[in-house]
## 1
Amino acid sequence: MHALPLCAFITGTRPLDWLVCLALYYVRMFGVTAGYHRYFSHRTYKTSRVMQFLIAFLAESSAQKGALWWAANHRHHHKYSDHADDIHSPLHRGFWWSHVGWMLVPRYDTTQWDRIKDFAKYPELVWLNKHWWVPPTVLGVVVFLVGGPSMLFIGFFLSTVLLWHGTFIINSLCHVFGSRRFATTDTSKNNLLFALLTCGEGWHNNHHHFCASANQGFYWYEIDVSYYVLRLMQALGLVWDVRTPPQSVLERARIDRGAVDLPKVKIPRVKLPSLADAE
């Protein structure tokens, strides 16, 4: 996947290919953030059965495996965030492992069904979770038929690779670089740049302070594009009961008001564990 965009040196590119690349990056980033994360992982809003399938399909077009697999692993992450059992903490395993290494280990291929029972009751979601390769394949074929090889390599493959790393930096770098507003039991941080790259996911310390909120930018100046789109969908009647943090949550555990934060921790140097160590 990382090498395929290089084929554009053979085919050449057009401005339209790059526009499609940008569009597919952000449209699918919304699917990742509002679908995989804010809906399936945290249930921060409600929607219909048809719409939840469409949201899952859009999210899975990012080629980040099944929605139920993704959400189950993320729920595990929140339960053990930055502790020894966290499967992708940069604190314990280093940058590369938390960024992408853990996904390359067969041990984590299976869906943790005990953590996703609320959505496992829908057979269409279970099917889509098993056949997660269908949405990205359909999208890739459509892009090729519409724009030819150059649009496939740049519009689809390059945007997919960029989307992967845009998503993965939240696991790795958002626990390393940024600022902390709330005292939490992990090293989560807020970062404006990462928020712009991920439609609002960069307000990670906010999120770990109150993960039941559909908005991760808690204040008007914290840009959260996915939340804005969810509000538009709510106005259209596509989603409802969009949850936001109550004022009591916004006032609780504020570091700038005397809450005791975690001691300074040293993030390990980049190291990729061997498969034998991982197993």
## 2
Amino acid sequence: MNFLYYKKNISDFILNQYGIDAKDIDTNFIDNSFILLAHNIDFKEYHSVFSTYKNYNVIFVLDFTFEPYTDFKITNEFYRAAETVGIPFNRLLMLYNNTYKMGLNSYLYKNRIVNTLSFPRWYYEYAMFLDQYPLNRMDYGDYDFTCFNFQGREHKKTTVKYIDKKELNCLSTYVNGKDFNSRSVQSINDNQTEMSLSTYYRGKVNICVETLYYKESKGWCDIICVTEKVFRNLYFKVPFTVVGNKNTLAYLRTLGFKTYDSFIDESYDYEEDEHRYKKSISAAEDLLSYWDTNQLDDILSYNYEFFSNKKNADIHFNKNIMDNFEIFSKSKNIV
């Protein structure tokens, strides 16, 4: 299979980390290829690429790997440009951080079938952070807890306010959209996505508030959203609990990681109650009591080793990405 890219993007970077040599389309074009396109270029550029390569036997791949769901509002320019040029939607494939329907999937969008390929965030985090080695957590921990929030969502606000109510010794951030008072929220020089490594260790246990948090009756409840917030804890050896959709911890265990269910109650992970964030915070308090134990160290070390072992990432990547690229290419007569 051949992979080309129009301007560098995340998927090109990730593929390269797994030994896939994606080449610049302007100087290395070859027919029968996947063409990788970034999610944030404008309609004019999409239109230009589609028009140039319309009559070749290629598949246009939209890199949307950072998002946990198919947000067509953000990707509309890609599909609108394809429709304008006359590119059949069966020649389009979107990569996104889907962890609840692994592999290839199809969705009905404006009377068209949109094809997607699950691209779990682990692949990106693995490629990004192997050059940053964990610090000794025992040298830090000036707070009992951390709770890092970048963009404001209602469940993030609710979590921080509950942390305040319990008067926990917690360093919280709330960079954008803060419209409430909080004793724990402090301004730091970092932002949530590009924090200095030592900042992750300011608290002994991270209360990890994921992007999505839904109760059963509101829909989207089956989406398991696992972003950099969780994976950086796993790699940096930071103990954590999750405020997120149900089965998040169960999903991590299916990948091969370990959670802390051998010594704390993690039943909140299976609950559909919208108040499960309270139990997640209670679990964080329980986890704190194991801060300096061999039980906790063993799990932290195991997850770090599992994460950083390229063999584990390669097996998952080849099975869920490369095998499905091949299936999709054969279905479209791309060889």
